[in-house]
Amino acid sequence: MNAILAPTGFAARLRLDALELPALAAIWGISFLFMRVAAPAFGPLALVELRLALGGLVLAPLLWRARAQFPLRLWPKLALVGAINSAVPFVLFAWGAERAPAGIGAITSAMTVLFAALVGFACFGEKIGTRRALALLGGFAGVGVLAAGKSGGAGAAIGWAVAAGCAAAFLYGVGLHLVRRHLGGLPPAAVASATLLSAALLMLPAALAQWPTQAIGARAWGAALLLGLLCTGLAYALFYRLVARIGAARTSLVTYLIPLFGVAWAWLLLDEPVTAPMAAAGALILAGVWLARREAQ
């Protein structure tokens, strides 16, 4: 009986993985749409404060369960990682979302993989082979195309939004190395909750100082709540569930899908155009990501 059931169970897990990976990409891709909708009403600081707090609270039960592994002396390090890996990048993406189509942020987010390779080379002595060097060149060429093109908005605004997205991706790249080197061995989902909540506390004074005084509509509130609960808290939980089941390398394939979903959601729900510069930039950046991953394997 067990011999008959085992393949069926394995096939069910494969089907579940095949559904969950694009689901995660779709959730993270739509986060750029939610920022585009909510950022003009809340402003970047207030919106990110809500995102951090809600996301951290969704994962808080996992942090509570592992609380013995998080002594007080560890929390300054968690707060630093939270600022670098969550608070500041979230603010940069939200700031860019006020000024440019949602697809711009989604495309630049894929640069995280390339910046992680660059940071590893510059700061941690990791090697960059021929493929990774070509990957970096292709990625930065894509950024140049994106910044120079008229992607559904004013050229200067697009350029600054691209710069903000790239800065956020760079900080994500730094954060990946910090988590790997200083928080390794801890439950990843609990680490995510701790860093999100620490970042929320750090940002609270600035967010309160910039809290909007005007009434905020239901559409913006809905986008903000979904950004925190779905795209941050539940998405991180799904991400670490996939890492535990299929491994980090296979889960990282989500990187290829986020820009595609981000652009598609914005086109479908916000009627944002998909321009030639966006398509060319996305192709160059994703080709660079593919090359970088091929060498890392």
Describe this structure in words.
The protein is mainly α and 297 residues long. The protein contains 12 helices and no strands. α2 packs parallel to α9, α3 runs antiparallel to α7 and α8 runs antiparallel to α9. The N terminus is likely disordered.
How many helix segments? 12
* Average pLDDT taken over every residue: 88
What can be said about the biggest beta sheet? none
Strand content: under 5%
Helix-strand topology string: HHHHHHHHHHHH
Please give the number of β-strands: 0
Membrane topology: Multi-pass membrane protein
InterPro entries: AA-Vitamin_Transporters (IPR050638), EamA_dom (IPR000620), EmrE-like (IPR037185)
Organism: Lysobacter yananisis
Subcellular location: Membrane
Task: Record keyword descriptors for this entry.
297 residues, mainly alpha, globular
In short:
The chain has 297 residues and is mostly helical. The chain contains twelve helices and no strands. It is globular, with a radius of gyration of 19 Å.
Task: Give a topology summary.
Elements: H1 2-42, H2 44-65, H3 75-97, H4 102-109, H5 112-124, H6 130-148, H7 155-182, H8 188-209, H9 218-246, H10 248-251, H11 254-270, H12 276-296
Helix pairs in contact: 1-2, 1-3, 1-4, 1-9, 1-11, 2-3, 2-8, 2-9, 3-7, 3-8, 4-7, 4-11, 4-12, 5-6, 5-7, 6-7, 6-12, 8-9, 11-12
